[in-house]
Amino acid sequence: MFQLTRDADVFTLTMDAGENRWNTAFVRGLAAVLDEVEASTGAAALVTTASSPKFYSNGLDLAWRRDPAAHPEAGDPAVFADEFMKLMARVITFPVPTLAAVNGHAFGAGLMFALCHDIRHMRADRGYLCANEMQLGLAIPTPELALFRHKLSQDVFFETVQLARRWTADEALARGIVQATAPVDALLPGAQARAAELAPLGAKRELYRGQKERLYGENAVLNGPHGAAYMLRNLSLYGH
Length: 240
What we know:
The protein has about 240 residues and is an alpha/beta fold. The chain has a single domain (about 1-235), classed as 2-enoyl-CoA Hydratase, Chain A, domain 1 (Alpha-Beta Complex). The chain is about 40% helix and about 15% strand. It contains eleven helices and nine strands. The protein has helices at about 25-40, 60-65, 80-90, 110-115, 135, 140-150, 155-160, 170-175, 185-200, 205-215, 230-235, and strands spanning about 1-5, 10-15, 45-50, 55, 100, 105, 120-125, 130, 180. Strand 2 (about 10-15), helix 1 and strand 3 (about 45-50) form a beta-alpha-beta unit. The protein is globular, with a radius of gyration of 17 Å. The chain starts with a strand and ends in a 7-residue tail after the last helix.
């Protein structure tokens, strides 16, 4: 489901489950890989990507959500929302620099995961970024909206979450959703090179995490009592 490699100070986490749809087993598998990265010492940075030529992550595992009994390998649906949101809070405040090499479509929860990274590079010739919950008839939880609001400008935020706009790489770069684009064969090497530049910032883990907590933590959201990281960790306090 996941492959983790290390080259000098750069960890590369490759999602290897086809469309990389999110269910409880996927959340727990990713959390275990993050444990390994976080247990390291010294300079470090993390790049995430996918083995699929088409998908970075295609969002929620809808077949599992509709019929969990038919997909027992995907885990308990009752704990998914809480565990997923806590994982996103962990990524957004991860103690080393993080970079998403978005090599294909990132929809719904996949886009959310990409936005939790510090930096995003996107494949130039293929793939969309899209929060497609409105199209699917799903309400976006308030903590997730807080995350999107932190990472996107106001006009991009509205078009993304309310109008379910599909962003191409050129559009995403122009609107600040991603920081770089590249042809597919240059995407991962470029992301890894940028991660290597940033890795020394990860040597002081608590400093790097602590400032992220203050960027995204309590009292960091306009018109709300708490920031995205707090809200993601405390889903039960917020209705849809």
